[in-house]
Each structure stands twice: as structure tokens, then as C-alpha cells.
């Protein structure tokens, strides 16, 4: 027998032995789950994870962990299930993006389903959400896959965590849905005098994140269907809504002179929330090629939601800001276009 034949025979024997070992662990795993020995089952899932990833059998590992996490969630073993979910994300990261888009996308709704299965009291759930979003950036941009954000937003919304839900809805690139959500939030949590603030806050954030399409869809949905807006078409009664209307049209022209004039005209209303000026500056950089000025201004994005987008804009504004104050009430804007 040649050296090559000996090596091939040895490799085949090793693989066969490894397969039998995995088969025995799988059999024990099934028995442990059936007998309610969940800790033992959890440890065996981890053992198989290490074996599969060492052999680069990523697809087998992903299927095993997904099935295991679902079974442990069904048995109300959420801590163990969350650990398997984190191992699943780790496996996706090790495998890397695949050339088949359908295979990549498959794990976005699956991760969303696993996150939905974990209650808010599960300690590792927030870590899982952040890890899943970070992984999804390899599929879709720097902020993560919009479908994953939508699924996460639905989870938070169902739980009544409006602030977290709003954050993810703004990143789901579905402006019509975002507009409807903002209408509901405005009606349930806002005053009549704040009806425009909910819209302006969201649209400026979307524009700052270079998502103009969603920003326009949000604007259209909100202005068309919000029952507390005094008018549903231009010119609007609320000055800041008119500001947005003109802003979209100036972005088309890329007129920096017009943008500066618009800011000056609506400056009193923009000062109703100190973050609006910060976002306007960012928009000037993104759409009008303005150079940002270094400012040591007051805390950003007041209001009940806080500046949840600050970490997404690091690099533009290095300040770490946190403001829990309520939105400022209406100020005198008689000198503005309305």
C-alpha cells in the first residue's frame, strides 16, 4: 500500500469514527431532552457546536443550534436557548457571507423568530439582538438588515417598549409603516402642540442616516393620515411640517444657499428641540456638501425618546449625550412661512 493510500485510509477511518461519536452524542441529546435533563442537553449542544465548527461543518451546526434553541424555548429554558442563539450567530460569523443571497437571507427571519421567542427578562437577549444586527451588516449596510430591524421592532412594540420599537422601525426602511407607528405614538403619548415634533424628529433622523426614500414615505404617510394635523396637504398649518416639505425639494436642487435661507427662516421652530439643529447640520453635510462646524452645544434630541441615534452618528458628533427632558412647548413662530 502506498503512502497516499495509507493516508487516505487513515483519514477515512478518522472521519467514520468522528461520525459515530457525533451520532452517539445526538442520541444522548435526544434522550436528555425527552427526560427533562435540560442542562445536560445544553452541554451536549455546546459539545457538538465545537466539533462541527472545528470541522467547518457550519451548515450542520446552524441547523442543530436553531433546532435546539427552538426546543429549549418551547421547554421554557430561555437562558440555555439564548446561549445557543449566540453560538448560532457566532457560527454565522465564522461561516461568513455566502454567494447565494437566499441562503444569507434565510437566517434573518430565523434570528427574528428566535428573538421573538425570548422574553424581555432573558438577560442575554439584548446581547443577542446587538450581535445579530452586527452580523447582518455584512448583508446590508452599516446599520444592519432592515428586515431584521422590522422583526425586532415588532417584538418591542408587542411588549410595550415604545422607545426601542421606534428606534428599530426607523431603521427598517419601511417609511409607510414608520409613519403609521409614529401616528399611533403621537396620539397615545403626545400633546396636540407636539404633533409636528414626532414627525420632524423621525424624518431628520432618517435623512441624517442617508435614507431619503424612507424619510419621504414617512412624511407622506404621517401628513396624509394623522387626524390631529390641521391640514393634510401643503401649505400645512404647522411651520415645521412646511420646513420638511421645502427641505425635500431643496435636496433635489442641492442649493446650499436655499438650504441656509430655509434654516434661518425656520430657526425659531427648529430650536424647539435642540437636536433638530444638529441633524440639520448633518443633512447639510450629506446633501449640500457643507463643512460641519465644531460646536459645544446643549444636549441633543430632547423629548421622551432621548437621542437613540447618537451612537449611529459617532464620528460626526463625538459627544456622548443623554437628555431625558420633555419636548419644549410651542414657541412664537409668527415670523415664519406657514
TrEMBL record:
A Pfam entry, by short name: GET4
Keyword Nucleotidyltransferase: no
Segments of this protein annotated with the region Disordered: 316-338
GO cellular component: BAT3 complex
Coiled-coil intervals, chain numbering: none
Keyword Cytoplasm: yes
Location(s), subcellular: Cytoplasm, Cytosol
GO biological process terms held by the UniProt record: protein insertion into ER membrane
Composition-biased stretches (Polar residues): 325-338
Keywords per UniProt: Cytoplasm, Transport
Domain of life of the native organism: Eukaryota
Similarity comment: Belongs to the GET4 family.
PANTHER family: GOLGI TO ER TRAFFIC PROTEIN 4 HOMOLOG
The protein, known as: Blast:Golgi to ER traffic protein 4 homolog
Organism field: Drosophila guanche (Fruit fly)
Amino acid at each position: 500500500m502506498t503512502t497516499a493510500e495509507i493516508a487516505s485510509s487513515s483519514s477515512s477511518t478518522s472521519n467514520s469514527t468522528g461520525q459515530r461519536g457525533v451520532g452517539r452524542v445526538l442520541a444522548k441529546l435526544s434522550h436528555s431532552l425527552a427526560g427533562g435533563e435540560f442542562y445536560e442537553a445544553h452541554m451536549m449542544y455546546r459539545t457538538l457546536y465545537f466539533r462541527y465548527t472545528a470541522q467547518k461543518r457550519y451548515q450542520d451546526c446552524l441547523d442543530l443550534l436553531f433546532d435546539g434553541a427552538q426546543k429549549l424555548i418551547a421547554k421554557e429554558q430561555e437562558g440555555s436557548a439564548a446561549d445557543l442563539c449566540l453560538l448560532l450567530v457566532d457560527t454565522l460569523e465564522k461561516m461568513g457571507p455566502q454567494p447565494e443571497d437566499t441562503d444569507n437571507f434565510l437566517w434573518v427571519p430565523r434570528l427574528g423568530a428566535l428573538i421573538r421567542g425570548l422574553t424581555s427578562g432573558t438577560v442575554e437577549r439584548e446581547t443577542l439582538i446587538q450581535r445579530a444586527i452586527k452580523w447582518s451588516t455584512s448583508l446590508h449596510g452599516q446599520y444592519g438588515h432592515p428586515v431584521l430591524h422590522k422583526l425586532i421592532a415588532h417584538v418591542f412594540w408587542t411588549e410595550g417598549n415604545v422607545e426601542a420599537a421606534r428606534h428599530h422601525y426607523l431603521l427598517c426602511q419601511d417609511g409607510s409603516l414608520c409613519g403609521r407607528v409614529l401616528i399611533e405614538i403621537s396620539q397615545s403619548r403626545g400633546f396636540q402642540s407636539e404633533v409636528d415634533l414626532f414627525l420632524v424628529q423621525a424624518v431628520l433622523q432618517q435623512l441624517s442616516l442617508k435614507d431619503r426614500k424612507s424619510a419621504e414615505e414617512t412624511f407622506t404617510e404621517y401628513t396624509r393620515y394623522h387626524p390631529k394635523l390641521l391640514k393634510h396637504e401643503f401649505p400645512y398649518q404647522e411651520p415645521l411640517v412646511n420646513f420638511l416639505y421645502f427641505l425635500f425639494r431643496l435636496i433635489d436642487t442641492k442649493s446650499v444657499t436655499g438650504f441656509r435661507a430655509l434654516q434661518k427662516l425656520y430657526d425659531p421652530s427648529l430650536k424647539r428641540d435642540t437636536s433638530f439643529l444638529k441633524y440639520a447640520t448633518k443633512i447639510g453635510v450629506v446633501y449640500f456638501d457643507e463643512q460641519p462646524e465644531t460646536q459645544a452645544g446643549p444636549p441633543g434630541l430632547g423629548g421622551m425618546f432621548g437621542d437613540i441615534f447618537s451612537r449611529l452618528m459617532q464620528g460626526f458628533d463625538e459627544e456622548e449625550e443623554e437628555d431625558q427632558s420633555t419636548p419644549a412647548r410651542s414657541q412664537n413662530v409668527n415670523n415664519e412661512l406657514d
